[in-house]
Amino acid sequence: MHVLTQSCVLFVWMHTLTFVKSQDCTRKQFVDGPLFDDSFDTSDLEASYSAGKQVRVSCRVGFSGFFKLTCTEGQWLSRGTKCQLRSCGHPGEAQSADFRLEKGEDFVFGSQVVYTCHKGYQMVSRTNFRRCMTEGWDGTVPVCEAKQCPVIHFDSKVLVNGDTDEATYGNVVRFSCKSNSEMLDGSAEIYCDENGEWIGKVPTCKAITCAVPAIENGYVTEDIQEYKEREVLHFECDPKYRRGEDRPSQCTKLGVQAEWSPTPVCEPITCKLQLPPLEGTRYEPAFRNVFLPGDLLTVNCGEKYWISNPQNISAVTTCKDNGEWTIRPICKEVICSNQRDRHVYSWNVYWRQIITLGETTPYRCTTGYMESATEATCTRDGWKPNPLCQEIKCDRRDFETADVVRNNKQKYRYNDQVDYVCKEGYRGRFTLTCKDRGWTGNSQCSEITCDRRDFETADVVRNNKQKYRYNDQVDYVCKEGYRGRFTLNCKDRGWTGNSQCSEIKCIRQVYQNADIDENVRNEYRYNDQVKYTCNNGHEGHFTLTCGETGWNGSPQCKLIQCKTLQIDNAYITHNEKESYGHNDRVQYACRKGSDRRFTVTCEQSGWTGIESCSACQNAAVPHGFVVGPYNDTVYYTCKHGYKLFTKGWWSEAKCIDGEWSGVQICIENEKCGETPVIPNGEVTPPRGQIKTARITCREGYNVNVNRLTCSNGTWHSQGVPTKEICTPFAVPCKAPPQVQNAVVLTSYQKKYLSDTEVTYKCRDKYTLLLGENTIRCKDGKWEAKNIECTQLPQEQ
């Protein structure tokens, strides 16, 4: 009845909540809210809408958009885009015109563009603007028409090139005479401007004639007023002036006009220069090519040029009264002879070849002569080096390590030979030959040296270095753990001398009341430590160390004694005293809560057989029942409908220090207990009401099922056996192959994952033959490497 009452109250509460949330939305809410702006048209909206109602809001004229409102719990929710100004797109290009946006900021409702014709064009449309309306741009694109110039009228002797009837702005009309014996009288061309008018007058044609020219600093020698075509003009120049051209001036038709050719000119008598100057020549001043008599000119030559003589690269020349220069202002190129020297055997210069400054050529000298350089170079002084070939001579060569034994003199000629023998402390003999590049031959004496010899059992105490010369001595003293000292001498065949050290050893010590813990041997090396543990009723440990004079350390053992043992809630029933010896026994009885008795024994490690007299409270297992205790142990199981969290249908708990240990909980039968063990993986137990447990695999293993699912009280792994949930990425390898006299530097495993590396280590006094000590597992197989440990050679 109580449950029924609660259900009714819950139903009434939910009904009331539903009624409160079902509120209407109003038009005023939208207009006064943040979603509204002036672009919306709300004239067709109702005053209110019920919950869940959707309504589309229209846009004002000139605006477009798709905007919906949904009434939800008394509030308007929006969807879609707000109203935006309607776009008209591009207004259209007008040929020979430009437009500008006069109203608005874009081609949208309410904007206006104005068109303007290009220069030389005029507007023929009634309006020069367009406006963006609700249906798009109003009107049509304006039209601009080119302005025309009037028709041209010309004489029949005139030849016209261009449009004379319908010329527009920018058109050009060119004129010429039809007869080659006539020339134009007027402009050769006219053009139509932006106002539709011709610039220039139409010319006529007349006979070719030349007027008498006015010649500055000169005069015409004949009395003729007008010259016909091909007639020659006779004129003279004033003193200190001369004709600009040697050719006679003739009346000639040039293009559409008649002119004197060449132009009759009288120039001052000057020295002239060619500009730009010839290659390799530079003038100062640089941009002046006419000079008066007495003027100076500096001529600078390029790197490979000369003036006046091959050594000069610059000169100053003066303009003379007759218009000539004192030094011809032209730089000449430096050139070397192509004739071969008599000691030159061959070179890369052919007959009549021009060799200029800086050019080089390889060459070879005749036998007995040596090239002064690797190549000959053309200079202002001729070929360098000079001479190109020198006779081969060699100075006597002296050595600190060798003496001359044949043909001893100060100077040697080509192919002369000298024999040497090496001095004491050095090995060898050699011969030198005087050749093209000097002495040839191997002139080395190998110095007798010895590399420093290192010993595992001795150190250098005098004259310690890496290399030793002939007759050097080195003193050694035996290292710690060895006895003796010795000296080695560096001689012709290496080191001489006795290099032995005797190792320090100790014989094993035997004690009646102590045994060696480990590493039992009859003989021990220097610094070996032997640990002893006392026995036979004695306690303690001691360590002996093998030293130079024998064993070092104090071999002491202490007789075992145990102090009286205090046990809570227990008392001694017999043989109570302050201390006990080895193997003494003491009986205890519990005071209350138990009638148990037990005996403790004084042994090597202390008291043994200690028990607890602490009592435990009655054991309780929720949803289960307990039987016992029996000897501090209870047995329990779960009631009907429940089961133990772990496997098995019953369990036990022991009373330890007053607490029951190992008590499991009882869970409902449809729930899952402890998760199963996943080989090479881990299971993360679920939390709360979650019925799945996450599986993770070890590195190198692939997870085939990532979750366990609890169903009907049992964990399921989607039909995959637990041993197949975590499988290796690749086929694993068995144990790596055995190598004689070596171990593997890792713990032993039955299987190794693919890409696992193992490293071998040779035993003492053994080394790797080929230097390879690592192999890798590749998909079930170990790399095939020939790893072999070989014994080091024994020192002499």
Task: Give an account of the 3D structure.
With 796 residues, the protein is mostly beta strands. The chain has 12 domains: 25-85, Complement Module, domain 1, CATH 2.10.70; 97-146, Complement Module, domain 1 (Ribbon); 158-207, Complement Module, domain 1 (Ribbon), CATH 2.10.70; 209-268, Complement Module, domain 1, CATH 2.10.70; 271-333, Complement Module, domain 1 (Ribbon), CATH 2.10.70.10; 344-391, Complement Module, domain 1; 394-447, Complement Module, domain 1 (Ribbon); 452-503, Ribbon (Complement Module, domain 1); and more. It is 3% helix and 44% strand. The protein is built from 2 helices and 93 strands. It has a 4-stranded antiparallel sheet with strand order 10-11-13-14, with no helix packed on it. The longest helix has 20 residues, at 2-21. Residues 1-21 have low confidence and may be disordered.
Rg computed from alpha carbons, rounded to a whole number of angstroms: 62 Å
Q: Characterize the largest beta sheet: strand count, sense, and whether it forms a barrel.
A: 4 strands, antiparallel
Termini Cα gap: 108 Å
Tell me roughly what share of residues is in helical segments. under 10%
Number of helices: 2
Spatial strand arrangement across the major sheet: 10-11-13-14
CATH architecture of the largest domain: Ribbon
Uncertain regions spanning at least 5 consecutive residues: 1-21
Number of strands: 93
**Which assembly state applies to the chains in this document?**
single chain
Q: What's the rounded overall pLDDT mean?
A: 86
**What is the fourth-level CATH superfamily of the largest domain?**
Complement Module, domain 1
Count of structural domains: 12
